[in-house]
Design brief:
Blueprint lengths: L9 H23 L6 H24 L3 H10 L1 H22 L1
Keywords: Membrane, Transmembrane, Transmembrane helix
Length: about 100
Amino acid sequence: MVPAHWHLPAPVDGLLHAVLLAGAVVFWLPVVGPRRPGEAARAVYLFLAGPSLDLAAIYLIIQGDSAGGLAMIVGMLPIGLAAMAVTWRWITEEERHAW
């Protein structure tokens, strides 16, 4: 765990934030991007991503950073909501094609 008084230089901190933002954009591309897979693949992608991303938050909680871990879990709630929305759209689309 990094001590509270430890800080990165501003350029390094900015670079790390840019890398994290790029990772977030790449993560969401299969869900909302222009060339996305079918509804079933997107639903499975999101349902698998949610718990795997929560592992990092659980690690923080185990290390004693409860507030940081809980903030990560709350911040990842849109993944579960998106998974439910994509699954619902998939179900209704399948139902529409069945009739």
